[in-house]
């Protein structure tokens, strides 16, 4: 062998060894941080200036920041259902925003994102907001609370049963209310007031946060809620301590699971109403209490990242950060949020927000960080949270059972920054409407003839100009595609329509 060839061979071998040494253990731990009502423009790395989010920005600086990522719905329960099942929630009856006493809407034994990790040998935990129902519809909050997260793939759970503005205002740890005094049983009613219990409507003088609409029933911690409850006083949460309580449970799970592989679904309460951040965040931003709740959320992210670093887990942990839907400012409490925005734009340059079919309803911040694997960058790939099951199955090199996760698409190459391509198309959803995204086009069907909407998001991201009349052929093709997706049992395996062009650009004329 010539000397030059020998040296080249040695150099190639050394490079290969170094490349393998740089690669982290595979597959990684996975931490999914799921914010609540966080808008596209609510954090620094997406353009916010009046509220500082250094920890979320740190996550973005060492990962991929997506500019066209979507929750599955413009409201919370449907998005959470899709995230865990890989099925659009509008396909299943009963996946609306649930009351606090609703039955579990996930079928025990059905494959979920959590069970996928559990079957791969991971320790799994659900900590934070749940809002997918508990029990079978006749729940006794003073006894065993099942089925719940433990029956759908989680080994451990410490949850808010529904939302912070709905009763019961207690934490549920695994199958029981945490800290419940048996001599002070809990009673919950969503139908009628409980005799002798003050409400926000009858005793407004007891409130430290006034309600603007709807939140006028049980008073807990000086804040009136949706629904009525009595008892369980020792177990009731304190809103100002909620973020610290939840993150402490998350950190404890990471610590006890650090020698094994783990999946943590950390579903924060912030920045959902009622907004009552800890005093350390009060007055720290230029845009009021809603932004103070964002600062508190960022603090939680920082605690998670610092803990991963402390245990040497950063390089082999995939952290996914996103939100369940777009932003809302006044959502039932007169907390001064609209008046104090001071120019802050929760949805950035997008139209709409929570409850809306426009982009601000479902296009949300989304960051994927895995320092041992992902190169930092920005991606315009179209991705959805409904894709988590298929993508994580690919990460784990596992197969999803036939018929399960029917709308989930493997976009792992996009999540890892290996490909600029995501989904071909995506269905967006609010409480009543479906819309279709394909490439640069956004199609919204309307019942009134001739009222359909079409937007070119490449030139008009704020959806200000309806171009449907000038692009009837595109409207008809997207209408047919949406009807096909709606009629099919799942969208993941549907063929792309004729003349679709390459994924990404969408229809071209």
List the helices and strands and how they pair.
Blueprint: H1 3-22, E1 29-35, H2 54-61, E2 63-66, E3 69-70, H3 76-85, H4 113-119, E4 123-129, E5 156-160, E6 172-173, E7 176-177, E8 187-189, E9 219-220, E10 223-224, E11 228-230, H5 242-257, E12 262-267, H6 288-310, E13 317-323, H7 359-362, E14 366-369, E15 377-379, E16 383-384, H8 388-396, H9 412-415, E17 425-429, E18 434-438, E19 441-444, E20 453-456, H10 472-487
Helix pairs in contact: 2-6, 5-6
Describe this structure in words.
With 509 residues, the chain is of the alpha/beta class. The protein has 2 domains: 25-177 and 239-415, Alkaline Phosphatase, subunit A (3-Layer(aba) Sandwich), CATH 3.40.720; 433-487, Arylsulfatase, C-terminal domain. Helix content is 23%, strand content 16%. It contains 10 helices and 20 strands. The protein has helices spanning 3-22, 54-61, 76-85, 113-119, 242-257, 288-310, 359-362, 388-396, 412-415, 472-487, and strands spanning 29-35, 63-66, 69-70, 123-129, 156-160, 172-173, 176-177, 187-189, 219-220, 223-224, 228-230, 262-267, 317-323, 366-369, 377-379, 383-384, 425-429, 434-438, 441-444, 453-456. A 10-stranded mixed beta sheet has the order 7-6-5-4-12-1-13-14-2-15, sandwiched between helices. β6 (172-173) and β7 form a beta hairpin. α2 packs across α6 (288-310) and α5 packs parallel to α6 (288-310). The model is unreliable at 1-25 and 497-509 (pLDDT under 50).
Class of the largest domain in CATH?
A: Alpha Beta
**From the coordinates shown, what is the CATH architecture of the largest domain?**
3-Layer(aba) Sandwich
Number of domains: 2
CATH fold label of the largest domain? Alkaline Phosphatase, subunit A
Q: CATH homologous superfamily of the largest domain?
A: Alkaline Phosphatase, subunit A
Give the beta-strand count: 20
Q: What order do the strands of the largest sheet run in, or round the barrel if closed? A: 7-6-5-4-12-1-13-14-2-15
- pLDDT averaged over residues: 93
Low-confidence regions: 1-25, 497-509
Structural class: alpha/beta
């Amino acid at each position: 062998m010539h000397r030059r060839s020998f040296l080249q061979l040695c150099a190639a071998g050394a490079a290969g060894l170094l490349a393998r040494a740089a690669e982290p253990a595979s597959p990684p731990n996975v931490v999914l941080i799921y914010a609540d009502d966080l808008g596209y423009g609510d954090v620094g790395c997406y353009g916010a200036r009046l509220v500082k989010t250094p920890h979320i920005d740190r996550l973005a600086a060492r990962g991929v920041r997506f500019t066209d990522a979507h929750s599955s719905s413009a409201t919370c329960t449907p998005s959470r259902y899709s995230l865990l099942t890989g099925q659009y929630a509008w396909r299943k009856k009963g996946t609306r925003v649930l009351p606090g006493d609703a039955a579990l809407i996930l079928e025990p034994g059905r494959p979920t994102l959590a069970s996928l990790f559990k079957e791969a040998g991971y320790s799994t935990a659900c900590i934070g907001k749940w809002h997918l129902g508990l029990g079978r519809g006749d729940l006794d909050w003073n006894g065993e609370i099942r089925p719940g997260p433990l029956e759908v793939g989680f080994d451990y759970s410490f949850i808010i049963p529904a939302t912070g503005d709905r009763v019961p205002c207690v934490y549920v740890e695994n199958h029981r209310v945490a800290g419940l005094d048996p001599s002070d049983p809990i009673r919950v009613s969503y139908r009628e007031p409980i005799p002798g219990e003050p409400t926000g409507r009858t005793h407004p003088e007891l409130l430290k946060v006034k309600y603007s609409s709807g939140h006028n029933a049980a008073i807990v911690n000086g804040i009136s809620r949706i629904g009525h409850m009595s008892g369980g006083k020792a177990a009731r949460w304190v809103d100002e301590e909620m973020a610290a309580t939840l993150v402490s449970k998350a950190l404890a799970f990471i610590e006890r699971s650090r020698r094994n592989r783990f999946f943590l679904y950390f579903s924060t309460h912030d920045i959902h109403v009622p907004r009552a951040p800890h005093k350390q965040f009060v007055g720290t931003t230029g845009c009021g209490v809603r932004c103070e709740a964002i600062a508190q959320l960022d603090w939680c992210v920082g605690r998670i990242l610092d803990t991963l670093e402390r245990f040497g887990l950063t390089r082999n942990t995939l952290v996914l950060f996103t939100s369940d839907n777009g932003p809302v400012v006044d959502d039932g409490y007169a907390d001064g949020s609209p008046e104090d925005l001071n120019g802050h734009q929760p949805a950035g340059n997008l139209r709409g927000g929570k409850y809306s079919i426009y982009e601000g309803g479902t296009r949300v911040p989304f960051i994927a960080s895995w320092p041992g694997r992902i190169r930092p960058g920005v991606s315009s790939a179209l991705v959805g949270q409904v894709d988590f099951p298929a993508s994580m199955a690919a990460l784990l090199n596992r197969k999803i059972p036939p018929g399960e996760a029917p709308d989930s698409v493997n976009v792992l190459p996009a999540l890892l920054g290996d490909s600029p391509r995501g989904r071909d198309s995506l269905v967006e959803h609010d409480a009543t409407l479906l819309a279709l995204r394909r490439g640069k086009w956004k199609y919204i069907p309307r019942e009134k003839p001739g009222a359909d909407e079409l937007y070119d998001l490449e030139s008009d991201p704020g959806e200000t100009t309806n171009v449907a009349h000038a692009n009837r052929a595109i409207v008809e093709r997207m209408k047919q595609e949406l009807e096909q997706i709606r009629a099919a049992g799942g969208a993941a395996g549907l063929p792309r329509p004729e003349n679709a062009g390459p994924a990404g650009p969408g229809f071209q004329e």
